[in-house]
Amino acid sequence: MEIQNNITVRKIIHIDMDAFYAAVEQRDFPEYKGKPLIVGGSPEGRGGVVATASYEARKFGIKSAMTSKKAQQLCPYALFVRPRFDAYKEVSKKIREIFSRYTDLIEPLSLDEAYLDVTEDKLNIGSAITIAEQIKQAIKNELNLTASAGVSINKFTAKIASDMNKPDGLTFIGPSKMEKFMEKLPVEKFYGVGKVTAEKMKRQGLHTGLDLKKQTEARLTQLFGKSGKFFYNIVRGIDHRPVQPHHEIKSISAEDTFAEDLDKGEELDDCLTKVAHSAFARLERYKIYGRTLTVKIKFADFKQITRSLSQTTPINDINIALSICKNIIANTDFEGKKVRLLGVGFSNFGETKMRDRLEGYQQTLFPEMNKI
């Protein structure tokens, strides 16, 4: 690793699988190949949201997190399938195995994307571009899937680069082109800048990286808080964040959105039991137990509440966990509302949090189902 003109020079690759869930479905079920496929949600009943859409569906403007109803309006003959998370997780493990041939510095962001630091690679290849090419080819040959790669000297730029030539793309942004690239980049393309922040920037006359670059650090901090300093640095190609292979466990959870809204009663209790078992199974898998149990409830009107109870000792028995869950539900006023989602999570791991760690990609099975 070198530092040139305040720029940390690493060799960073960001790999992003192309339409991952949909691509796995099209690979495993040939009848879906070449057709507009939507994973998640359902056009019937309440619907839900799109988890992933195939590139054939994206041509109609269908995007992740769009409502299924809207997706069907855009493409009435799109195919909807339920996600198979066990299958996606298994494929993700195989992708991780390919990464590990080249480096142990792997930071998964989710099942389908990760950062790799190949400043010093295991095979002494030396070229990050060559390594990215080999990884892409291995994924294609061994898994019959495609990935896009971004190669640069820091995480921020590698992440942006991987999205520039999808699908099956490879983009390199080197130190000599870094600042010019950032200057031309629209603010909404900056990774981490959401719709609200982008609109705020534009109201301030900040439309591109160059506009940001003209501002003082103090001004950007005044406008955007701590993020202001990050914006100030990143438009100059400065991003010192290392690739972090592991993340401390903060919580482990599971949740489920129901096909039909449920009243408080036996059916809801059955669903609560199922979700609690799912969350507890993840604790068992990694032999880590929390002292705090949280139940998340989302009502039919989308109002969301969480209720927590903490114990003096770790909750290491499913029957105790179930008893706590049911106690929370029994003492919660539903105000006559029906429930569309239940979640159960464990946290407050204490000493075990420092001892036991969980790979980021294993915890992020699917944000909407897996986080409280």
Automatic annotation (TrEMBL):
Bound cofactor: record note: Binds 2 magnesium ions per subunit.
Cellular compartments annotated: Cytoplasm
Main location: cytoplasm
Domain (UmuC) ranges: 12-194
Nucleotidyltransferase keyword on record: yes
UniProt: Mg(2+) binding residues: D16, D112
Active site: E113
Alphabetized GO MF terms: damaged DNA binding; DNA-directed DNA polymerase activity; magnesium ion binding
Transmembrane segments: none
InterPro entries listed in its UniProt record: DNA/RNA_pol_sf (IPR043502), DNA_pol_Y-fam_lit_finger_sf (IPR036775), DNA_pol_Y-fam_little_finger (IPR017961), DNA_polymerase-Y (IPR050116), DNApol_IV (IPR022880), IMS_HHH_1 (IPR053848), Rev_trsase/Diguanyl_cyclase (IPR043128), UmuC (IPR001126)
Cofactor: Mg(2+)
Xref: Gene3D superfamilies: 3.30.70.270, 3.40.1170.60, 5' to 3' exonuclease, C-terminal subdomain, DNA polymerase, Y-family, little finger domain
Keyword terms: Cytoplasm, DNA damage, DNA repair, DNA replication, DNA-binding, DNA-directed DNA polymerase, Magnesium, Metal-binding, Mutator protein, Nucleotidyltransferase, Transferase
EC number: 2.7.7.7
Site residues, Substrate discrimination: Y21
Function summary: Poorly processive, error-prone DNA polymerase involved in untargeted mutagenesis. Copies undamaged DNA at stalled replication forks, which arise in vivo from mismatched or misaligned primer ends. These misaligned primers can be extended by PolIV. Exhibits no 3'-5' exonuclease (proofreading) activity. May be involved in translesional synthesis, in conjunction with the beta clamp from PolIII.
Family: Belongs to the DNA polymerase type-Y family.
Name of this protein: DNA polymerase IV
Organism: Pedobacter cryotolerans
The gene coding this protein: dinB
